[in-house]
């Protein structure tokens, strides 16, 4: 006969009866009434087409077919148990790892697709993939991806490498800000601000290759600090001696509590492209990396652009 789920249940019931030496004795082991046990065994015998045991005044006794069936059924259930155990082990062992790198402070951006992509990735892999995420500078990211130490990454890349594949995920808006201690913080006249901004000490992010201050041509000496991260730029700006560009989503907390001020927003605002980068040769991508890349690109195509605004 072909074995179905109901057969497995009936087989377990009959083996318990055989092990206990009778229907009455099997009640406690199975937590079933004797009438239910009898019905299950009778249904199994009808399915098999022969009698498995004798029951009555003479007591419980297996028939020759019943004895053979006990031996075969015991082997079957042991194999089934091993199968279930091995499947469970494979589930726990996991699918491998995916190595991701990002530039700093993406988490405060409401349109960054990484968080929803990771959520869907977890669902697609059943939570069995190990995820390693490092926060690095753009040059470290590109070197890591090119060498194979990083599977995929998100960052701002001023000079893309021909060895790598880049995809624009979304855009980030940078605003020019100063800290509350800075002399320009209280200036209300726009003409005076235009005049003073050009000579004010500035902090720039090194990886942008001076794209932070695209409007400077003859006053590069006003750039007196170079940093590799947004957090480092924010520290110098909050100290009160430098002005600089920060992503609007990142600066918002200090702008709203009065620790920073946006300077000439209509004139000095710049856009950065946040890009996904991975190796060009798709054959070198792991299956897990390919899944996460698809989730990122799919999310980027349907994510609307949200813009933060600040009061003057």
UniProtKB/TrEMBL annotation:
Organism of provenance: Hansschlegelia plantiphila
Family membership: Belongs to the LysR transcriptional regulatory family.
Keywords: DNA-binding, Transcription, Transcription regulation
Domain HTH lysR-type as annotated: residue spans: 6-63
Protein name stated in the entry: Transcriptional regulator
Keyword Mitochondrion: no
PROSITE patterns: HTH_LYSR
CDD domains referenced in this protein's UniProt entry, alphabetically: PBP2_LTTR_substrate
Listed GO MF terms: DNA-binding transcription factor activity; transcription cis-regulatory region binding
InterPro entries: LysR_HTH_N (IPR000847), LysR_subst-bd (IPR005119), WH-like_DNA-bd_sf (IPR036388), WH_DNA-bd_sf (IPR036390)
């Amino acid at each position: 006969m072909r074995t179905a789920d109901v057969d497995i249940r009936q087989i377990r019931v009959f083996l318990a009866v055989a092990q206990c030496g009778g229907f009455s004795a099997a009640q406690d082991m199975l937590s079933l009434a004797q009438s239910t046990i009898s019905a299950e065994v009778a249904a199994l015998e009808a399915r098999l087409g022969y009698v498995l045991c004798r029951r009555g005044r003479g007591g419980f006794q297996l028939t020759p077919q019943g004895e053979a069936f006990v031996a075969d059924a015991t082997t079957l259930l042991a194999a089934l148990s091993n199968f279930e155990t091995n499947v469970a082990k494979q589930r726990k062992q996991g699918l491998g790892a995916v190595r991701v790198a990002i530039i700093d402070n993406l988490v405060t951006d409401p349109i960054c697709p990484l968080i929803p992509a990771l959520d869907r990735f977890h669902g697609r892999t059943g939570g069995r993939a190990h995820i390693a995420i490092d926060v690095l500078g753009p040059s470290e990211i590109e070197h890591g991806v090119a060498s194979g130490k990083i599977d995929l990454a998100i960052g701002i890349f001023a000079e893309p490498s021909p060895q790598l594949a880049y995809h624009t995920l979304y855009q980030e808006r940078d605003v020019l800000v100063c800290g509350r201690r800075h002399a320009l913080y209280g200036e209300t006249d726009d003409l005076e601000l235009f005049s003073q901004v050009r000579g004010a000490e500035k902090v720039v992010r090194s990886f942008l290759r001076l794209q932070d201050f695209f409007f400077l041509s003859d006053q590069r000496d006003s750039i007196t600090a170079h940093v590799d991260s947004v957090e480092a730029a924010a520290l110098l700006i909050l100290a009160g001696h430098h002005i600089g560009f920060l992503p609007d989503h990142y600066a918002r907390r200090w702008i709203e509590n009065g620790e920073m001020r946006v300077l000439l927003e209509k004139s000095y605002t710049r856009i950065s492209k946040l890009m996904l980068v991975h190796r060009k040769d798709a054959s070198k991508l792991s299956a897990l990396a390919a899944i996460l890349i698809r989730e990122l690109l799919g999310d980027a195509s349907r994510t609307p652009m949200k813009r933060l605004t600040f009061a003057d």
